[in-house]
């Protein structure tokens, strides 16, 4: 990690979201979760170096809280930047009404 890098913290709910997605893909859809998990890790590495690459959400409430989102396939990863820390809060299916989750 360089001086410009940020520390990434994955909140328990986001970890649960990712585990649940992996389970669903592998056990319900009978497909590999590996490509999606690799994309998640690639995007996490990207925001560790530059967390401001994705814009703050336009929703007034989530904007006020500083939420940003990354579209990854049919999913969305939500995070907040606080000081030198990137806090990943949720990873959800893109068609869910995410405003109700926060």
Task: Describe the fold and architecture.
The chain is of the alpha+beta class. It has one domain: RelE-like (YaeB-like fold, 2-Layer Sandwich). The protein contains three helices and four strands. The longest helix is centred in the first third of the chain and has 17 residues. The model has no long low-confidence stretch (mean pLDDT 92).
Q: Gap between N and C termini, in Å?
A: 31 Å
- Counting helices, strands and paired strands, the structural category is alpha+beta
Overall number of domains: 1
Give the full name of the CATH homologous superfamily.
RelE-like
Low-confidence region ranges: none
How would you state the average pLDDT, rounded?
92
Based on the structure given, which CATH architecture is correct?
Answer: 2-Layer Sandwich
DSSP, total strands: 4
- Anisotropy-based shape: globular
Give the proportion of residues in helices.
25-40%
How large is the count of helical segments?
Answer: 3
The biggest sheet, with number of strands, parallel, antiparallel or mixed sense and barrel status, is:
4 strands, mixed
Q: What share of the residues does DSSP label as strand, in percent?
A: 25-35%
Which characteristics define this entry?
four-stranded mixed sheet, 4 strands, 26% strand, YaeB-like fold, 102 residues, alpha+beta
Topology:
Blueprint: E1 7-10, H1 12-28, H2 34-49, H3 60-65, E2 67-72, E3 75-82, E4 85-93
Parallel strand pairs: 1-4
Antiparallel strand pairs: 2-3, 3-4
Give a concise summary.
This protein has helices spanning 12-28, 34-49, 60-65; strands spanning 7-10, 67-72, 75-82, 85-93.
